[in-house]
Amino acid sequence: MRILVIGSGGREHAICWKLVQSPKTEKVYCAPGNAGIANVAECLDIAATDIDKLLKFAKEKYINLTVVGPEAPLCDGIVDAFRRENLPVFGPDKSSARLEGSKSFAKMFMMKNGIPTAASRGFTEEVQAIAHVKTLFTANPPPKGVVVKADGLAAGKGVILAYNLKEANDAINLCFRGTFGDAGKKVIIEDLLVGEETSILALTDGNTIVPLVTSQDHKRAGDRDTGPNTGGMGAYSPAPVVTEKMFQEIDEKVLQKFLKGIKDEKLYYRGIIYAGIMITAEGPKVLEFNVRFGDPETQAVLMRLESDLAEVMLKTSLGRLNEVKLKWTDEPAVCIVMASGGYPGSYKKGFPITGLEEAEATGAVVFHAGTAIQDGKIVNSGGRVLGVTAKGANIKDAIDNAYKAVNEIYWLECFFRKDIGHKALERKQ
Ligand code: AMP
Ligand code: GLY
Known about the structure:
Oligomer: single chain
Number of helices: 14
Number of strands: 23
Number of domains: 3
Bound molecules: adenosine monophosphate, glycine
Radius of gyration: 21 Å
Structural class: alpha+beta
CATH class of the largest domain: Alpha Beta
CATH topology of the largest domain: D-amino Acid Aminotransferase, Chain A, domain 1
Helix content: 25-40%
């Protein structure tokens, strides 16, 4: 099989790393890839959003399977373009990608299909949004808080938790001022949910849905979940907050209803659905849908996969997911993200990274995200730079193994969270 992977993050490095382990894989290309992906795949000088060039490349090279990593090309309709040419592609079409691209579409889909989620309302006029939060906060008793979301793709940044009326007004103001671009033309205001989060990823081909093992992300930049929201500072799998009973409840209330929803609405969906779920006192509630693998959840999850990913993805893209049975190791896996100083704000790039070989010599795998090669040296070139991933006999060992590798790596101003996996550890004690 000749496979084209689209994207350049740690998620795509993990996907390429796993794909090349398949005896069925002849060659993996990655557009555009990064310095680490270059060790396992041939990187192409084509942007992840340049659908015309990607399509041309796939036709010229007789690509058997294209795997789309990030949401942007999915929302732009890359799957529709590949389908028109009868090229197997892993991902949902443009219409289905609205589940991630439009929060109001996702909310409507959840309401229609009885999928539990926070109550919400959408507004295109700032005054009405302001009036709405005023009504909410003058109720007796007032809510614990509200969540203001810019409706559209905002790279994970268009969500603001507001704990009082002033914060809610400021958040609405920020959205309508254009801070999140077009994504702020409409805002969704929803109830604040309280609980612990988990990421539930599942494969689907529109007829069958197959959940992957559970995981948990760490969204905040600082230890003990403080500081600003990021794309994710680390992940582990499995997430013990999802007990067997909770998993069944999620399957029944979210995954099966999702599958019925896409069937009823005749949505073309052959890829991954990722439900961000809050486990509340009233049960699981969906915070958001993403139409692609999570980053850094994928790094931890794929470390545990024993099945042949190339075969699994090809079968999904051909609508034959019913033939797939996934095999996993029981060993937990942990991914620690190392980031450039200042992330998620501004940061300096171009610092040489040392200790990568020493880190991998410990047995960990170092997935690259924002790295590049400059004067023959690997340097940091993005906010999230590396995802250092390790397994262990139990969650504590996996955490220790991952940090042992992290401690070998250095570049100027790099930082990482010191408490990845703390919720799993606390639950165990
Ligand atoms: P989203 O992009 O919608 O997943 O939101 C990003 C993050 O904001 C989530 O992972 C949660 O941590 C938080 N969040 C979103 N919606 C809510 C909500 N209704 N209640 C509490 N936290 C939320
Ligand atoms: N880890 C969060 C995301 O991929 O959206």
